[in-house]
Amino acid sequence: MIRIENVAKDFTLHNQGGTVLRVMEDASLTIAPGECVGLIGASGAGKSTLMRMVWGNYRAASGRIMVGDTDVAQADPRAITRLRRGTLGYVSQFLRVVPRVPTLDVVAEPLLTLGTPEPEAKARAAAMLQRLNIPQRLWGLSPTTFSGGEQQRVNIARGFIHPSPALLLDEPTASLDAANREQVLQLIEEAKARGAAILGIFHDEAARDRVCDRCIDVAGFAPKAAAA
Ligand SMILES: Nc1ncnc2c1ncn2[C@@H]1O[C@H](COP(=O)(O)OP(=O)(O)OP(=O)(O)O)[C@@H](O)[C@H]1O
Predict the structure, then answer these.
(1) Which segments of 99-209 are extended strands (E)?
(2) Which intervals hold domain ABC transporter (predicted)?
(3) Per-residue confidence at 228, pLDDT binned at 50, 70, 90?
């Protein structure tokens, strides 16, 4: 479902004389439907960079990143938007929302965009918010003033509301209490059971051991010259 082939990544530091920094080379990795792969490696090794390339925010210097039938490394912005709408989900660490949009609408939005009737989308959003213990009195408010953990749970609710066949998870259990962490781990297990291919970064080792089928150390994708 997700196939990364011979991907390289350079950063051009425009404010430092245009220095080109190669941070990754020959990265290859395949994630099958129903499989969860954890990215590990030291800080700065390139875990977030690889995730951002799969998501389409960072452009690969070369190689292919197939998500379903789309090569994210080559796709134009409209194709990437389409991919994100139906096929590729992303739970980032931080919630980014339009101010003044109520929480229930924030969570229902991915379904509404796909054409789900509003009553059904809102009912599913409500069920998800309930599951993640967001009190009903908060559903009509914008999540911008919520606590860090509440915002993270709104983000998770939004990320899991549509059963995307491919999913990226960036520290999905960070800053959650035990009960909510358990809900998130169950959501991940359910996504795997329905056949989602998942790529994640988990600093929570117990969570990683429970949901990941295998781990890949991105140190193996370091440029050869730098590694020598
Ligand atoms: N936008 C950017 N511009 C320039 N260099 C960048 C940029 N993003 C990442 N890098 C560099 O790429 C390398 C990999 O960074 P990345 O954030 O992917 O590491 P990481 O493994 O996710 O680290 P951490 O565990 O600390 O989050 C680092 O050397 C970093 O400085």
Answers:
(1) 166-170, 197-201
(2) 2-228
(3) very low
In eight-state DSSP terms, residue 221 is G
* C-alpha–C-alpha distance, residues 94 and 149, integer Å: 10
Q: What residue owns the CA closest to ligand 1's atom 5?
A: 11
Ligand 1 atom at minimal distance to the Cα of residue 41: 21
Complete domains list, the chain, with CATH: 2-87+164-227 (3.40.50.300)
Give me ligand 1 centre to Cα 45, in Å.
Answer: 7
The response to whether residue 146 sits with its C-beta less than 6 Å from ligand 1 reads: no
Under the banding of pLDDT at 50, 70 and 90, the label for residue 26 is very high
The residue whose CB lies within 8 Å of the most ligand 1 atoms, and thus the one to mutate among 7, 9, 11, is 11
Query: How high is the pLDDT of residue 97?
Result: 79
Query: What SS3 class is residue 199?
Result: strand
Q: Is the CB of 43 under 6 A from ligand 1?
A: yes
